[in-house]
Design brief:
By secondary structure, the chain is mainly alpha-helical. It has two domains: 1-19 and 98-140, HAD superfamily/HAD-like (Rossmann fold), CATH 3.40.50.1000; 21-95, Putative phosphatase, domain 2 (DNA polymerase, domain 1). The chain has six helices and two strands. Strands 1-2 form a two-stranded parallel sheet. Helix 2 (22-30) runs antiparallel to helix 5 (84-93) and helix 3 (37-54) packs across helix 4. The longest helix has 18 residues, at 37-54.
């Protein structure tokens, strides 16, 4: 027996897989929507962004995020205070990586397995997250 085969590379999704969306869930709770609305909001946000891209259009992430928040709140029968979209966007900018991310990436790097992070975010939004300094453990 030759043992467990080593992967040639590993790819990770960024949001929720590498990052902890707890700050966003807390913002949703403060706004009266509750943390269970975060996945719904994120799905609406991705749906709208992908639909625009497929149709050859584009919009600013912040505008899409605010629109998705308004849609989720409206369907839930909840009115949002002024600045609700900014509160959620601020929380999204503060999401940390999960505590086990850097050790896992370093372990992959030390084993010679390249690791990649996949996201549909823009280059500026993909700057290293709090708690995740730039590292040679993640390929560019």
């Amino acid at each position: 027996m030759t043992g467990t085969p080593r992967p040639r590379a590993v790819a990770f999704d960024v949001n929720e897989t590498l990052t902890d969306l707890a700050p966003v869930a807390r913002a949703f709770t403060r706004l009266g929507l509750g943390p269970d609305s975060v996945p719904w909001w994120f799905a609406v946000l991705l749906r709208d962004g992908m639909a625009l891209a497929a149709a050859g259009g584009a919009a600013r992430f912040a505008d899409l995020a605010r629109g998705a928040l308004a849609e989720v709140a409206g369907v839930a029968g909840h009115s949002l205070p002024d600045g609700a979209g900014d509160e959620v966007l601020d929380a999204l900018r503060r999401v940390p990586v999960h505590p086990d991310v850097m050790p896992a990436l370093e372990r992959l790097h030390d084993a010679g397995v390249p690791a990649y992070a996949l996201t549909n975010g823009s280059a500026p939004s993909c700057a290293p997250r709090r708690g995740a300094p730039a590292s040679p453990a993640l390929e560019s």
